Amino acid sequence: MNAGDLAGKHLVLGLTGGIACYKAAELTRLLLKAGATVQVVMTEAATQFITPVTMQALSGRPVFTDQWDSRMANNMAHIDLSREADAIVIAPASTDFIAKLAHGMAGDLLSTLCVARDCPLLVVPAMNRQMWQNPATQRNAAQLRADGIVVLGPDSGDQACGEVGDGRMLEPASVHAALSAFFQPKLLAGKRVLLTAGPTFEPLDPVRGLTNRSSGKMGFALARAAFEAGAQVELIAGPTTLETPWGIARTDVQTARQMHDAVLGAVSGTDIFIAVAAVSDWRVAQVSTEKIKKAAGQAAPTLQFVENPDILASVANMAQAPFCVGFAAESHDLERHAQEKRLRKNIPLLIGNLGPATFGSDENQVILCDAQGITHLPKADKQALARTLIAEIARRIDIATPV
User: Fold this and answer.
1) 192-288+300-397 placed in CATH 3.40.50.10300
2) How do residues 78-110 score in pLDDT, each as one tens digit?
């Protein structure tokens, strides 16, 4: 999560009846940490699963449950609460409440608030798998989408009833990520983006290999930022423990050749290719089938290397190449090496940084290299920087930029 990515946003968080109400507590904490203010509104059924006292303590605001609540001077909570909001988020949204929304029913405070709103509405379904699969529920969900209501999820997995399948509420971190994406400008709407991220691993024997210190954080941040900007995003990742960002299709690989093959298999129809991965330039010519043992008095083994395929150059030299963006992590002479690499790869934009200082860090500082020269960007956390870089890419893709 990126602290501050919802700064200044005021959200009404609606809770309806369901065991997933416990997730609303963590969701509230995440939204507040991201800079939002949260006004909780609960149905009577929701109060059977989590108390208004809990939600008030977490949100720092009085919780509204009653349509006739007199704390509002005009006694019109259903009007006043939505007028202050940047969005209303129903999480969890029960089968019953989704049906009410689909039919415009307004029998309690939360449903009336939704009907009377003048702000966006997002719902996060949470229910038993058979309730979600019921044709009536599917019709109602389709009607919500047709009415411009955003439906987030549901997820699939273990359910409180002991069954397994679609219907469980998205995890709070995923809801937060989806909300962050919702408020970002859609600079890449309709575009397809393909990215590589992380290190590669070239085996020497069954237990050892050549790799590097890339964490994958910058590439994953760019994938998330591209999705937030409205793009369809596919991420090809080397060995990393990072979680897949919300909304991203991910393919895992290990070696440079595997990454090369995965990229060439996915690049057709892509508008933008961003090569962030730190790809090994070489691999050993012959991988040992057994662990290379050390023996007393024995000389160190001699390894023979062969060059790996150049993924970025392969894509850039395609007949109908997408807009290609490269990355260069250098240890010295950053500007010279970055500009030389951009010209060698025949790409319009290359992003450079001093790698050892930023590997594994949550912050980065980069330069932009293009035909116009070098632009320095200020140091920033990687998610904020990723959004800046996506804006820079979006600004360039419709311009005939010479290499």
Assistant:
1) yes
2) 777 888 899 999 999 999 999 999 999 999 999
- Report the CATH superfamily, name and number, of domain 10-183: Flavin prenyltransferase-like (3.40.50.1950)
Catalytic residue among 21, 114, 161, 324: 161
User: Would residue 161 show up in a list of annotated catalytic residues for this protein?
Assistant: yes
Would you say the CATH fold of 192-288+300-397 matches that of 10-183?
yes
pTM score: 0.88
- State both tokens at 2: 């990126």
Mind listing the pLDDT tens digit for each residue in 261-305?
A: 999 999 999 999 999 999 999 999 999 999 988 877 778 888 899
Would you state the pLDDT for residue 360?
A: 64
